[in-house]
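Fig. S4 source data, part A: sequence.
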Amino acid sequence: MGEESLNTVPFDRTAEQAILAMKKGAQLLKCGRRGKPRFCPFRLSTDEKYLIWYSGQEEKQLRLSLVMKIVTGQRTRQLQPDKENHSFSLIYTNGVRSCSLDLICKDKAQADSWFIGLRAVISKCHHF
């Protein structure tokens, strides 16, 4: 797979199902800049504009229109080779800098679903 362009992505039933699953949410392993990776509940906002997660009691959001690309496999930070086929990174702009949100799913099927859903939603965000 590798890097994916965020140009037009055909919207299909698979993407629709993936987006519905993302709105329901899932526990994903978030690999941050500091400390150990930790499980956080992630979900897609109902308006499909934000990825929302909770770190402790604090709600965090990533505006999906800021995401420039999705990179499959964990290549940006703490490498976990056994998890590479069910991980991805969202590369986004934060002011003038480029940042990444590195996530690991429970299995390849979940990673594929989140990847398809995010790609479809991000593509829509970039066309409005």
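Fig. S4 source data, part B ends here. The longest strand covers residues 87-94.
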